[in-house]
Amino acid sequence: MKHKLIICNWKLNGNKNFIKKYIKYLIKNYFILNLFKLSIAPPIIYIDYISKLIKNYNITLTVQNIDKHIQGAYTGEISIKMIKDFNIKYIILGHSEQIKYHNETLKDIFKKIILLQKYNFVPIICIGENYNEYKNKLSIKTCKKQINYLFKNNNIINNKNIILAYEPIWAINSKNNNKSNLLNIKHITKIIKFIKNYLNKINYNKNIKIIYGGSVNTDNINILINIKNISGLLIGTASWNIKNFIFLLKSIKLK
Ligand code: PEP
């Protein structure tokens, strides 16, 4: 990955007016985008609208989630087959907000990884420990368990296009989570090193790219993006205000 990947996770935010202004400002600052691989993860209902606005630019689209079923009586869900109709590159899997609010399990995430492989999308697979695990020094144990479950017996190992997002749950959305006002960069660096070494050791796909997500902001972005073996960042809250987001990107100094 030549340029670092930046995924903007809009979560449950935005409307057509927001999107129009956002993309207009983004395009105005396009020179800065040439330094990164930018992908926007809007609410699924706006995928078609936004894809028309960005069609002449090197910006890709990411989907925030898909259902584990392909079709059938699953009211309210979105199938990977439907995603195929649009120009989408990445799909986020196993985000902690899906686990927290929709009881998603490792088994569900595993099923979705298999689907993505079949339909040729690049998965962004989220892993990471919760606050209790972090406090009880169980971060490595938790990440190891998640990697073992999601990657074992999975022909994902032969696929070049896999992104693993280390997203410690305690670090996500720190505005609403005063436990993590300050990111523990030393810890994050240690876990990323562990993940890289562990993937190599168990001989899973050596091409798996690791990105980091969780309360990226102007104070920490330069340290986080320059951590060894980091191929990019998943940015939630700090990507919602386009002016602040461009300011954030402009502040990056790659080593
Ligand atoms: C996320 O939810 O993936 C995320 C990184 O959010 P935030 O940047 O708001 O912590």
3D architecture notes:
The protein has 255 residues and is an alpha/beta fold. Helix content is 38%, strand content 16%. The protein contains 11 helices and 8 strands. The chain has helices at residues 16-28, 30-33, 47-53, 80-83, 96-102, 106-119, 131-135, 139-151, 185-201, 221-225, 242-250, and strands at residues 4-9, 36-41, 59-63, 90-93, 122-127, 163-166, 209-213, 230-235. It has an 8-stranded parallel beta barrel with strand order 1-2-3-4-5-6-7-8. Strand 2, helix 3 (47-53) and strand 3 form a beta-alpha-beta unit. Helix 6 (106-119) packs across helix 8 and helix 8 packs parallel to helix 9 (185-201). It is globular. Phosphoenolpyruvate is lined by residues 9, 167, 172-173, 213-216, 234-238. Phosphoenolpyruvate binds at residues 9, 167, 172-173, 213-216, 234-238.
What is the radius of gyration computed over CA atoms, rounded to a whole number of angstroms? 17 Å
H/E topology pattern: EHHEHEHEHHEHHEHEHEH
User: Which ligands are bound?
Assistant: phosphoenolpyruvate
How far do the termini sit from each other? Answer: 15 Å
Helix content: 25-40%
How are the SSEs placed, and which strands pair?
Blueprint: E1 4-9, H1 16-28, H2 30-33, E2 36-41, H3 47-53, E3 59-63, H4 80-83, E4 90-93, H5 96-102, H6 106-119, E5 122-127, H7 131-135, H8 139-151, E6 163-166, H9 185-201, E7 209-213, H10 221-225, E8 230-235, H11 242-250
Parallel strand pairs: 1-2, 1-8, 2-3, 3-4, 4-5, 5-6, 6-7, 7-8
The structure holds phosphoenolpyruvate (PEP).
Phosphoenolpyruvate binds at residues 9, 167, 172-173, 213-216, 234-238.
